[in-house]
Amino acid sequence: MTGRHNKREPLPAERHDTIRHEIMHELGGISLSAREISEKVGISEKAVADHLEHIHRSLAGSTGKLLVTPAACIACGFVFRKRERLKKPGRCPVCHSEHIQDPLYSIIPR
Ligand SMILES: [Zn+2]
């Protein structure tokens, strides 16, 4: 499918639901970074983060949950475990490397 993301009109609410379902579908069984999700679904990484936060909340109490593999420093192995927000960090607090493995997201059964 091509061209469907080119329109400048505001997205109708149902389009948001469709994107959310597409993201949830993409995350079934595999882990993807926000960048990979943005490429697959055709929205910005920032929009992906917003959708992920919504999916995270909407899955509470359901049969699945959003599994987040925390970002990690490629240089020294430091893991960003304490991040509450679903955003990727800029640099490592230990060695100050900017080579950070993005957080990965997956939807798994409870
Ligand atoms: Zn580091």
Mean pLDDT reading: 85
Question: Which architecture would the CATH scheme give at its second level?
Answer: Orthogonal Bundle
How many domains comprise the coordinates? 1
Q: Which spans have pLDDT < 50 for at least 5 consecutive residues?
A: none
What value does the Rg take, in angstroms? Answer: 15 Å
Total strand count, please? 5
Separate helix tally: 3
| Shape estimate | globular
Bound molecules: zinc ion
Going by CATH, the homologous superfamily would be: Winged helix-like DNA-binding domain superfamily/Winged helix DNA-binding domain
Fill in the CATH topology: Arc Repressor Mutant, subunit A
Largest sheet report: 3 strands, antiparallel
Strand residue percentage: 15-25%
Helix content: 25-40%
